[in-house]
Structures are given as structure tokens and as C-alpha cells.
Amino acid sequence: MAQLFEIKNGEQFGIFVLIKAADIRTARNGKPFIAFRFQDRSGSMDGMFWSATEEEVNLYQAGKVVFLRGKRDTYQGTPQVKIESMRLAEAGEPDDPTLYVEKVKVKREDLEAELDDALLLITEANIARVVRKIIHQTQEDFFVHPAAKRLHHAMAGGLSFHTLSMVKIARNLLSIYPQLNPSLLIGGIILHDIGKTVELSGAISTEYTLKGKMMGHIVIISEMIDRACSEIGIDPENESILLLKHVVLAHHGKMEFGSPVLPQLLEAEIIHYIDDMDAKINMITEVLDKTEPGEFTSQIFALDRRQIYKPKF
Amino acid sequence: MAQLFEIKNGEQFGIFVLIKAADIRTARNGKPFIAFRFQDRSGSMDGMFWSATEEEVNLYQAGKVVFLRGKRDTYQGTPQVKIESMRLAEAGEPDDPTLYVEKVKVKREDLEAELDDALLLITEANIARVVRKIIHQTQEDFFVHPAAKRLHHAMAGGLSFHTLSMVKIARNLLSIYPQLNPSLLIGGIILHDIGKTVELSGAISTEYTLKGKMMGHIVIISEMIDRACSEIGIDPENESILLLKHVVLAHHGKMEFGSPVLPQLLEAEIIHYIDDMDAKINMITEVLDKTEPGEFTSQIFALDRRQIYKPKF
Amino acid sequence: MAQLFEIKNGEQFGIFVLIKAADIRTARNGKPFIAFRFQDRSGSMDGMFWSATEEEVNLYQAGKVVFLRGKRDTYQGTPQVKIESMRLAEAGEPDDPTLYVEKVKVKREDLEAELDDALLLITEANIARVVRKIIHQTQEDFFVHPAAKRLHHAMAGGLSFHTLSMVKIARNLLSIYPQLNPSLLIGGIILHDIGKTVELSGAISTEYTLKGKMMGHIVIISEMIDRACSEIGIDPENESILLLKHVVLAHHGKMEFGSPVLPQLLEAEIIHYIDDMDAKINMITEVLDKTEPGEFTSQIFALDRRQIYKPKF
Amino acid sequence: MAQLFEIKNGEQFGIFVLIKAADIRTARNGKPFIAFRFQDRSGSMDGMFWSATEEEVNLYQAGKVVFLRGKRDTYQGTPQVKIESMRLAEAGEPDDPTLYVEKVKVKREDLEAELDDALLLITEANIARVVRKIIHQTQEDFFVHPAAKRLHHAMAGGLSFHTLSMVKIARNLLSIYPQLNPSLLIGGIILHDIGKTVELSGAISTEYTLKGKMMGHIVIISEMIDRACSEIGIDPENESILLLKHVVLAHHGKMEFGSPVLPQLLEAEIIHYIDDMDAKINMITEVLDKTEPGEFTSQIFALDRRQIYKPKF
Amino acid sequence: MAQLFEIKNGEQFGIFVLIKAADIRTARNGKPFIAFRFQDRSGSMDGMFWSATEEEVNLYQAGKVVFLRGKRDTYQGTPQVKIESMRLAEAGEPDDPTLYVEKVKVKREDLEAELDDALLLITEANIARVVRKIIHQTQEDFFVHPAAKRLHHAMAGGLSFHTLSMVKIARNLLSIYPQLNPSLLIGGIILHDIGKTVELSGAISTEYTLKGKMMGHIVIISEMIDRACSEIGIDPENESILLLKHVVLAHHGKMEFGSPVLPQLLEAEIIHYIDDMDAKINMITEVLDKTEPGEFTSQIFALDRRQIYKPKF
Amino acid sequence: MAQLFEIKNGEQFGIFVLIKAADIRTARNGKPFIAFRFQDRSGSMDGMFWSATEEEVNLYQAGKVVFLRGKRDTYQGTPQVKIESMRLAEAGEPDDPTLYVEKVKVKREDLEAELDDALLLITEANIARVVRKIIHQTQEDFFVHPAAKRLHHAMAGGLSFHTLSMVKIARNLLSIYPQLNPSLLIGGIILHDIGKTVELSGAISTEYTLKGKMMGHIVIISEMIDRACSEIGIDPENESILLLKHVVLAHHGKMEFGSPVLPQLLEAEIIHYIDDMDAKINMITEVLDKTEPGEFTSQIFALDRRQIYKPKF
């Protein structure tokens, strides 16, 4: 079946999609309508449902899969759906929401294999045990969570994909700069964003949790390390554990970006660079993929609204 | 016996003092000398010990109490000691370093009584138990530690004195603004700087510990709360515990001042103001005390080098 | 009679309200309509008046009281009025605009009594005479003006209410920190925003005056002090008068917030903190009052768009 | 007689100079010495007076003129005096301190003539009367005061010289941009820094006055305008007077530079540019005058430590 | 024939205008409409063309001249056109787009004469030859290009008009400050923005070119100077050429405004001031021209949204 | 022969060293002395030469090689030389200054081989030709110049070493992120700092050249590319050349760091990260090499005075 973004402007269609958001509003004529945001693996698109009955308002809520008939349209340059009719997906039809969520293009097995390889690079015993413990506890979420609500790697599996891209860069740096400590560098990278499994609600309709808002993923990771030590029976005042906490606490590089301490280890400084660089490459590539050679991308918010040019050669 | 700052310029004296710092340097003539910083409860003063022998270098180290003979002198406007002779304090003489450390002027019993009163204001059960647990664990340090290495309340007992001044302001705000939650406000204030018992080495020759530098007192407190819950058997994911952590994590008010999250509770915002205001009053008062009416203080570093005027009336 | 914000969504009503603003716009069909903002003591609400005749446009202007029939509605989450009919309030009906303006919830007599008490704390003769003179001159406005056009205490009586909340905090600080000069502290607080009686037009449809825009309330107060001295016959070059001017000139704390000089008196520094803290508490409390426990407020513009959480306990 | 900066390195000399500063310090050998700063119209130079007796310390104080014998020397790249002997200037000798203070190179009569011409450009009656009144009151100081303690035009007469250079630029702008209001532009320029006659102590050993520190010259000027109106009998609430106050209040261009309001008149904006530009040209020219073609100047503090190149052509 | 901004609100009209922009959008009823922006020498105005056929969409594109019948209307305070009918301008009618572009009000001959005069002030031979060469190469564009896409002097001829206003100020400064080097000052001003002939596409529908975006007009000018030297046969490593490049590279005054080096010549510093001042005067005057005495202008974006007051006298 | 930093504190020695700097100063006793900075490949160390004769001042100048006898000493924690005697190196002795300049530890042949390999990655013909042309022209300097006067890679060969470390990272990124354009990435890296061969004077007593100060190495590279095109006969307006210029112009990442344009190509953004990361690793490693495990480094100026911890494991 066709995906949302494969349909051409003006074309008629009937496909299954996930309702990502459904806001009730009042039209100028005083009647309520529903502002839908539909989603499948090709992306998200808006559509207005005019003159909705109370029953329809209750039926079509965020998180439901629906069979949608309509026409692909454009409003002020942005593609949207002109809804003709819709109904809930029934048993026997593809009604599992996870089928419609955007995912990274790498297989989970490949990411797992890369993670296993990476764990072998951690030679300091305390760090190795703590990292393995936390991976073990968060495994399910680690491979399913996005790396962010918006911005970069904001799709299912984004967290592990981003983490393991960083590991690839780090492996190479270890060979160029032998002075780097592999346990702190690789251990720090694997854990650096793993607090997002607590900070964010999950891959479907991603939201910040209360704990995520009140503590931030950076302090959450430090807490996870402390608790893991207690569970394994490692003294959390060991220098190696303390420095592992430091590496994750400092990885945003600057206080104004939410790190409570500045990097005071070479590895903390480097993780900050790798993290930032991989995020930027991901963000830019995503918009470049939707841009023609010889054109500029739309403004990229997280790059201070810069536009990036796609060369012709 | 006279104190260092009671001796007049040009006066001869013989008193016991603590060696706060002792740096070995080489004079122009190639001979080593010791740059001393002496301390008693009236403050700290420098003195140069010329042509020191190796034995003397080994004998007179930081942390030792000595009987010092000399003359009060002035160098570029700053009082200093012209050393005539010195010897280590002997048994039977006042050789306890704590006798020479600057202390707050309030009695510990009074501070303890104020703390006990304040604890009664915390009505939420989880917060009450956690705060009492941590106070119990850090009690000795809480009443002895300074609130900072430099800047404000940088003297023995400064931590508890600063904390309880803040409690006084908070009690009053609770009566003006009944919408404030007393458990979060008073609990948050009592704990807000208690991580400094770990971040700083103590009242004598105060230094940052490795853990203090690598994690900062803000994250240390959050960790203390988490561990206290585990020891008492409280679920750390309780909203009240989460918000207590938030209040201490956010109390620096801005990320660039080291808070990993911005205040998202009214009480977090208010603690930031009370903390900042009490610190500023303490800093300014300290320099005003050494200033004549009708004059400006010296530049106050932590106020962006501002000078404060002391009115004549 | 019911107030605007007491009517439930979907409910029919007929009440008297004040027209706070009336903008003429053109609909898509080319006909003019009026975008009204109605107000009573419960707050302000929008409503569109379609296909207005020229006569209606002239009749229903800002500042007029009308009898409004309609239905309470919601547009994109914000309550609004679906207008059915309206007519001007007639003689004998409640047609005084001041009846519909939001006011502080404290009685004027209470505020006056608090002010009288506060004046007694000013012991320095020059400051006492100048403050009383200015209070005498601006009394009517002082108890009626808002403290701001938007942001905090933006309601009738807000200026005196804000000022006297600050006085309450200051009284307490005087007992905790005896080094504070009560004449400068209390005198400075009473005058600190009194220039707003000149800077702002009043409590109904509050606007900046030309003098307010061109000089700002901070310089206006300094000028009021200077003129009061001239009228009473006090030498304005007295140190106490000079320092009183300084305290008000410096009370915004930083030059980028409009103070032409930085605080150079302990009291100037403290007034800045009290002012800022009371304003923040007022702003946050106002939005928390409209928020359910367990929810976050909407973004608060003056707190850099932060959202505040309302605890469940 | 030779001037300080005309004497070559290593040369012996005997000349009259003014003692600009005389600090008493203690040498390594324990004996007091005087760190002098001598001044004549060619500039200022340091010199150490070793092993000073108490009598000498009392005799040679700042503000005294002395006959100084010594040798021109260099210390770390900076010229200094190696003192051989000194004595106070006696009656009949050139013992007037004003003879040794650096002055602008233009004759006072010329500046007075330029000022008279400029006053004629002010056509609005209220502004014309107020400006003339203030000039009349401050005339003696206006032609003698420096424009600053340090930085630009920091010499006797600098205030009027700087003001009248600005007038020259403004006259030209009036011909290029006829939309400029000459009364506000010229009146504003003449008054813009005249508060410095109150803010600074004078041309010899220039210091900030208490009023200068506590109010700043910007608010002082606004106050001078208000008082002048009262003395002449002009209503200070006239728009022309209000705008004149605005022009001087806003002339620093940004709040962080001490203006309590931002420029809201074209003339206020322009005065800010002219002021800044004339100050920069003066500062740069002064250091370029001491620089060889093909070389860079020393770092200029007020230009964020930039160095300026002096071309060879 | 009447101009767009000469027509009164509500008046019927039929005039020739240029289509500046034509965006295709979809109305609520699902039908496409064209959002036009029309332009003539009096300014630009919007108008909606409802229910456009595909043919009309293809016909009425940006850059075309049309005969437009309609009624002058207002939408939310902004003037707009209520379109009744339109057709393309035909042969014999005024169909040249350049007739409808806003132009400076000075005659090209006058600007050319001023430029010729200015060139005579450049006495250094290398600079004189390079400036004349570049003027010769870019002459057509220099007198036709705007100085900017938006902001100041954004109209045909704006580049030369802005440049020659700056020259007028500079001539005057040369007489007040004889230390200024006329070749660097005048040569630098003439070239300072001439890279905009490459950076911007032209006077009609002004856009940034790819080279303009990728290099910026500042580096483009430096390159033009280097190439001109090569073509004339001047050694580009001559100090005079190097300093001429510096003056244009540094003329934005600060790195954050796009200058790769800070001003290190007095002339570079001064050009920055003159440039900035003339731009501000132009921007402010343009909005003041549309403002009544006693009113404030609308917010001026490039002045950080400040509003400027137009005095009554 | 021993190197400066191999000699232990207190040890006697006699070795050849280069005089890096020789400042003449006057001692307290009025006699001149020379403040030397000696250098060999192990680093730089100060030493004072008391009571120098005029002949000695003329003899021992910066850039000369001398045989130095003395004792390794310490002054305020910093190692220094207590000079006993010195004489100029004679013919037959190791008197070539380049022998004493700190160099990168990699052989030039290896760097040349890496460069040759890297050039093969550039597949776009214009970029390939221009990069080879410029490498050919600057080859001698490219392998000898430092990458900076101070900060990172500030040693002979530092420019090529830094460039080729960046190439190693880039090669790896090309395999992780196939969307990167190798011609722009590798070509941009090779050229990104090559303007430093013009901006800096060389490896011995490195200073900025006049052209370096006035244009900056970033614009110089753009100019080198333009001239290379002209010499080879490539149209410099080709997109590939324009983008190559952009990549070097934008590589400082932000305008305030001296890039006249912000990165608008993915490769420009990435080069900025690689450059910054390699520089930071080099700076931190250099100070960590002089630090004991378990200690913090001294403050690193270019990291905003941060101190980096050297782990014990």
C-alpha cells in the first residue's frame, strides 16, 4: 500500500495511517472541526475534518489507526490531506500503531552487534560492569526510543542509532589519538543519552515525562549509574565511577546547554564534539534529502535558521 | 592575647597563629624564602621569612600553629607581618588549629534550635523523613563547614548560618504568600547547599574535593536524596521526592550558573532569590564593616567589581 | 449578575461588560466586522461582531459599557464570546467603566493603614518629609494605578498592592539584618515605582504617556524627589536626598534593565531583589491559579517562556 | 625649559613638574619609598624615591610643584625618571599647578566663538532659553573641565573641545539631511555632557564626585534642565523641553551604556553616533601621534584592546 | 495616472502596476487563489485573486505589468487592493517593469557628478587607479542597484545614493580631522558596498545570488580589488592596496556583523560609523515620512523594534 | 646532550640553547639586566642575566645560539635557569637555530605520503587542480610552518601535522556518512589553514605579518584560490570553485570567530567540527603530558581557563 509521501499532489487515495494528533477547534460557522495530524513511516501530514459530530470527536483520537480516503492537497506550500472519509481500522487489518511510526533504516540486529562489539572496548572493570548493567536494564527502550522529541534522530530507534554512530567515530579517534581512555570514551558514549529512556515517553507520540522535565536526562543518567553500583555492589565513590558520572554530566559541553559541570576530562570534551557533530550531520542530511541539487534547504531551526545548499556536483 | 588585626601598624608583638599557607620561593639573591599566610579569628595576614633553611622549610607547613614574634607592617596599603622569629606551638600551648579559624558569630546551639524549629514546618511525610535523614547524616559537617571557599559565608559554620538566615526569610514569605508550599520551600532551603559538605574539604584550608569538582554540589545533593530514600525505604519516584530533587537542582536559577534544569516550581524560583539575596547581603556587609562612613568599599569581585558606599547617616 | 469567567462553555448569557478594545477588520466576504475585547472584574474575553454597519462601528467603542447577549464558546483552546446582540448601557444601569476593571483583592483602607505604618519606619528627617510630600501629591493615583501595563500586578490598585507587599518583606529583613538603613529601604520602596503614576495613563485602557516613554518612570521619580525638595525647601544636595535618588535610580539592578547607575548602596541592591521577587511571585501565582494540580502552566513570557508545574500535594 | 617627554633616554635633566600622585610603599629592605607620578603638559611619567624620610613623605604630596633633577630611564619599555634630587618650587618660580596640566590645543576664545555661533542655530524658543541658561551657569567649568577622567578628551578644556567638534559635524549633517531638527540636534549636543561639570571634580587630579557616582552625568543633565525651567519660568512639561531631556537621556544609545531610555527621536540617535565617532577619532589619533608610520599602536583599552596601524603613505 | 498610494481608502481605480510576487494558495473551499503583491513607484500593496483558473495562474506571474481595476481597501490596518479585474499590459502601453520600481529621488547625472568629484580626492596613485577601474567595470550596476534587499536604501539607485551620501559626510570630516587619509577614506567608501552589484540580482525582484550567499559582498569586494590589480598590472602586495582591502573587509565594524577582521585603521573605523549612521537616518526618515507629527512610527525591525517619535514642532 | 626540560631541579648543567627572547630591563640597583627566554626542543625556560654590560646586551640577542652554563632552579612554581655563564656558539658547534625549535614528532616523509594519499580522494577536476597548484606553491612552508603563534600545534611542522590529523578523521567520516562530498571535504581541509603560510612569519620567533593582520588567513586562502584559477586558466565562477572558497571562508563556524559567512554546506559545517576537535585534543594533550595522574592541569587559557583532570587508571 502506498505511503503518505508517495502520493502525488492532487491524487485520490485510500490508505491506513496513524492519528498522531487530533485537536478539536471551532470553525467560523460555529461548528467544531478536528485538526488531524496523520502519520506513517514516510512522515506526517495535516488534514482538517469539518463539521465533526460528538461521536466522531470521541472516536478518532491520537494513537488510533484509521483507514483514510481523501486527496493529496497543498496549503501554503505544505502538503496536506483533503479528507473524504475515514473509519477505524478493524481486527484483521493492520491496526498496530507501531507499524506507522518512522524508524531508523538499520536493522536492530546490526545495532545490537555493534553495541556488543563496543562493550568489548571497555577494559576498566567497574565501568564495564555498570555499563552492561544499565544496558541490560534499559535494553528494550534503548533500541526503540528516539534520540529526541524533535530535532535530530527523532524517530523510533534513533537513540541507539545515534549512539552507535558516535561509537564508530570514537573507534577511529582511539586509533588516531592513543592518549584517549577507551573505557571512559566508549562507556561515556553508550550511556550519554540513555537517560532519555526515562526523559521521553517512547516512540509513539513522544512527550517529556514529569521526571524528564524536572531533572533532565543528564542528571537521570548519573542517578542510573549510582543505582546500578548499589545493585551490583560496586563502591560508587571509586574514581572510575566518579569519572564516568562526570563524562555524562559534562557531555553538553557548556552550562548554558544544561551540563551542571564543564568538561574536565579529555574524554568528556571529545564526547561533546562527537555528539554535536553526529546530531548536526543527521539534521542537515534529513533536509538535504528533501532538497534538489542547486537549491537551498528550508531554514533549519536548530542551526539558527541557516539554510544549507545542495551542490550540483 | 591580642589578635592579628588588633595590632597597630608599627607595633611589636608575640602571638600564636595558624599557618594557613606556606609557599617556598627563591629570592633575587638565589636563597629560598617562605611566603607565609598567617591566620587567626580576626583574619589572615602575609609575612615573608627570608633565607629559610631546609629544616625550617620542613617545619613550618600549612596547618601548623606557631608562636610568632614580629612587627605589624604595611606593604602597598595592605597590612603584613615583619617576622622576627617563630617556633612551633608546644604541648600545653593553644596548638589546636580550629582555635584560629574564623567562625560565625552565632552559637551552634542557637542554630540547632532554629533548625529544629524549621524541620517542624515540613509537613509532607516523605520530604520530612528524607530531610531529617540527611541532616542526621551530615550534622557534624553541616554546623562546621563554610558555605563557600571564597565569596560569601566563607568561614567555619557559614553553611548552617547561611541556610538558617534563608529559613528566616522563608518563614516570613510563607506568611505573606500563603500559596507557597512549606515542605518544598523549607525542605529545599535546608538541603540546597548541603552537598557542600562533600564538595568542600572542610573549614581549615578549604579546598574542592575531586567529587566536588567533577559533579558539583548541586548533583551531589540530588544523589544524597536518592540514597536517603533507598536507606529509609521510600520510593524515590514519589512526586514529592522528585520535586524536592528539582528544587535543589534548579536553585541556581539559570543554567549558566550550573543548574541542569530551570526552576519549574514557584518554590524553586523563590529559593533562588532568597539564596542570592542572603549571599549578597553577607558579602556587602563584610566589606562595609571595614569601611568608614562617607567612603566606598574596595571593589567587590562577585558584584562585577562594584564599589558600595557607606552612608554618613 | 454573573461574571464573564463564571459562565460555562456553551452556556447562554446576558450581562453588562466594558468594551476594552474594538478593532475594525474586513472579513473574507469584503464586509467589515468588529473584533471586540470585553472585560469585567473576572478578566477579558474576545468576541467577533460580523457584518457591522457604520453606525454600529461608531457606537461600540473602547471604554463604553454594553449589555451583551451571547453564548460562551471556545476557539483553539481559548474561551470566547459568540455574540448574539448588544446595546449600550443606559442611564440607571451600571454604566460606570470603573465597575468592570480588574482590581486587587485587598481593601484600600487596609493598604492605606499599611502605608501609614510604613512611613513611621523612616527616621531620617529629609527622606521622611520628601516621601510624605510625594505620597500626598500622588495619593489618588497611587491607590488606583496598576503596577504595569502587562506582566505583574497589571490591575487597578496594583501599584500600591505591589509596593506594600514589598514593604512587608522589607520589615522582616530589617529584623534579620539590622545593618540595613530603614529610611533608605522603606523610603526607597515606597517611591520606587511611584513614577508610574506619570508613566502610565491609569487603570482603564492603560497606555504609556509621552513623558513615560521619553523619560521612563525611573528618571521621573528622581525628578519628583528634586521638585519635592524645592517645594518643601530642603537642599536637594543633602546626602540623604542624593542617596534616596540613587536608590530609586538603581532599583532595576542592571543598566540593561534601564537603571542609569548600578546599585552602590546595600539598600539599593536589596530593593532590587525584593521588587523582582514579588513581581515573579505575582506573575507565577496568577497563572498557577488557572492551572490544575499535576499540570504545567502555559508558557510565561516574562520568565523566558518557562512553564511552572503545580504539585499534586 | 624642556618638557618631560622631550628628554631623551639616558639624558640628565633638571625641570619643574607637578606631582600627580605620590604613593608611600615599603621596599624589600623594610624602608619606605615614594612611588611618584610626575606630570607636565607633555604627559605623565613615574619615578621611585628610595629611602624617603618622614619629612620627605610629608613634603612631596600630590598637587605640589617640584624642581626635579634626574635621568630619563626606561623600565620594561615604559619611560621613567631616575630621581637624583628634588625640592619644592619656591615663590617666584613657576609653582602654579595649572601650568602643568595637559590642555587642548585650541584657544578658549575660538571655542567661545564657535559656541556663540552654535547657539544661533537653536530656533525653538524654550530650548534656546534653557540651553543659554545652563551654559551661563556652567560656563567657567564648561571651558575648563575634561570630557572624561580617562579615555577620550581627558585633558583641561576637553569637554568644550569635544562638544564643539560634535557641533561641527552636526552643522554639516543639517545641510545633508534637512529633515533634522536643529534645535534638538544642536541643543542636545551642547548639553549632552555638561553634567560632567558636576560628575567630575575638575581638570587637576580628576575624580568622580559622590553625586557623579550616585546619579551619573546623564540624569544630572536632565535635572539641570528641569531646574533651569523652574528658574526661568518655563513649563517643564512643554513637549520641546521633554524632548530635550529625552535627547540627553538617550544619547548613550543603549541601556547597557547607561541611558535609561533608548533613542526615540532621530536626533537622539544621531547625537549618539556623532558622540561615539568623535570620541573614537580622538582616542585613536592620540595614540597614533605617538606611533611611527609602518607600526601598530599599543593596545587601546576602550577599543577592546585593538591595535591601530599607521600607514606609511 | 494615479499611483497606488495616492488612492484613498474605499476609492475605485484602474491603473498599471507591476506584479512583484504571485503566490498560489488554496482557499477553505478547496479552490486555488493568487496572493498578489503589486508595486509601483509609490510602494507595494497586497491583493487576493479568488477562484483563479489555471490559465490565470500561468498568466499573472511576478515581473509582469498588468492593468488592474479594483477598490482600495484595508485589512487589519494595512492598505490592500480589492481586485475587480486585471489584464496584462499590451504593446504600446507602459509595460516596462523598470517604470514601476521605486527609485531614489536624485538624478543620475547629479550622482555621477558627485562621484567624479569624489574620485579627485583620492591622491594615492594605486588606490586611485583601482577605484576608477572597478567603477568603470561596475558603472551600469552601481547607479541602478539597490543598497539592500530590504532595510535601508532598498530601491533602484540606492547603492550609489547611499555611497554618495557617505562621501558628503566624509568630505566634511576631512576638513574637521586633517589626520584622516583621503585616499583610504574616500576610496574605501566608494568601494565599500560595490560587491552588492554581484551579491544582489538587481533592482527588480531583488534576490541574493549564489555567489552573494556563499561569499558575502565583503569578500567579493576584496576579490574585485585583487583582480583589478592584476588587470591593470599593479602589485597587489603594495601596502596601499593591502590597506584598501582592509578598509572594505573591516567596514562592518564587528566580526559578528560579518567583517573577517576588526578595523585596524582609523579610516576603517570611521567608514563603519558613517555607513551605519547614513543607513539609520535613511531607515528612520522613511518611516517618519509616513507618520503624523505627535505620533510614533510603527516598530522598526532593524532598530530592535524601537518606535521613533515625530515631534510637533 | 641533555635538553632543558630533562635537567632536574637544582642540577648543574652546560648545554647549547637558542635565545628565543632577550628583554633589557633595569634592576632596583639601577643596573641593566637581560631577561632571557631560552629554548630547545624540549620547551622554553626563563633566566635572568644580572648586571649586563653594553657589549653583552648587543651580543646575546634573540635568534642567537649560545652555550649556557647554569643551574636549574624554580621561581614561584615555574622552572627557570640560574645563569652562571654563557657564550655564543662558534663555528663547528651546533649553531643552527632550527635545531632548537620545537617540532612535531612525525617525519616529514610520512606527512608527505599522507598528503599524497589525501589528494587522490579529490575527484572533482577543478578542485583537484586548484588544491594541487596551491600545495605546489606553498609546499616548503606548508611542512615547516606552525599552525598558530600560540595555542594549538604551535611548533614547526604544526600546520601540516594538524591538517593531516584532520584528514584522518575526515576519511573515517566519509565511510560513516557516504552523503559527504569528498572533494569539498578533503580539499577544504587541505586548504583550510594554508593561508597561515602568509599570515605567520615562520617557525622561528613566529609573528603575524602585516597582510596576516589586515586580511586574516581566511580571506587570504580565498584569494589564493582565485589567483590559482587565474594561473591555471580555470573559470573562478565555476560552482565547484565557489563552493571551495565557501568551505574555507566558513570554516571558523561563526562570524564572531572571523568567518565572513556562516557554513551553508554540510562539508563546511563538518570541517569546522573536525578543526575545532583536533585543536582541542592537541591543546589538552600537551598540558596533560606535563601532569601527574591524579592531578589537574594548570588552567588552559583557550578553554576559558578550565583545568583538566588526569585519571589514575
UniProtKB/TrEMBL annotation, chains A, B, C, D, E, F:
Gene3D superfamilies: Hypothetical protein af1432. Residues 101-128 form a coiled coil. Keywords: Coiled coil, Exonuclease, Hydrolase, Nuclease. GO terms for molecular function: exonuclease activity; nucleic acid binding. Transmembrane segments: none annotated. Residues 162-279 form the HD domain. GO terms for biological process: rRNA 3'-end processing. InterPro entries: HD/PDEase_dom, HD_domain, NA-bd_OB_tRNA, YhaM_exoribonuc/phosphodiest. The keyword Coiled coil applies. SUPFAM superfamilies: HD-domain/PDEase-like. Residues 24-88 form the OB domain. It comes from the Bacteria. This is HD domain-containing protein. It comes from Ruoffia halotolerans.
